[in-house]
Specification:
Strand content: under 5%
Number of strands: 4
Largest sheet: 2 strands, parallel
Order of helices and strands: HHEHEEEHHHHHHH
Shape: globular
Radius of gyration: 18 Å
Length: 244
Amino acid sequence: MAMSNGHHARILGDTLAIRYKRNNDKGALMAIMEALSLQLGEQNLKYVSPCSDEVEEALKWASGGRSTWPMYAINARGGITVQENKAKYPFPGFASRIAAVELLNHHRWQVERYMEPTETDEKLAELMRLDSWLSVCGREPEILDGASDLRHNMPLLIQFLIVEFQDRFRKLGRTSNEGGFQRIRNVARSLLATLNNEKLSAAEQIFTIVAMLRTAKVAACIITGANTEQIRSILLTDTRVWLV
């Protein structure tokens, strides 16, 4: 795949949200989570409860009118992160220790289709935790000075991966508990093989999978969120909107 710096202005959620259907957002999450588990140890991935200090810290940050962004976002100034001190652990491919990737609850909740829906503020907190990790991790020399230049190329790389794997994600109709484990693992391994073929280092592969997970979660929020089609039609057709 030929990547160009001219594409770094793309918003990551757009491609995934456009290409997703409501019935295959779980397929992407299942494959991406499995790819992440194949790369990381237990200490590298931390599941927190909605009542945890981590979620509370993120929501306090948001309630103060502050935002978070991954390091590759437009005008992110290298990334914006929730201010905090975290325990750090060795990560494959990185010379320095890095804080764990934080997700809500547990692995089964991430991928099972019948789990209770999470509140909007909890989803926001989870995305903020991922933004923070991507910001901090993106400042490590393995990413910032990496040969793949993910600071500029990440949006196009994720667009490429979504297009490449959208059919395989859609066909993942069963979760691991429903007998779909082997198919999920096969897609996850294929995803990692693609990153390896793109000549990404071990550190860059981990960073990309986490960024892809963040994108999948943004898209899922858009797809399962409130229907804004009526508002969109008003914005497009009613000229009076632009007078207020």
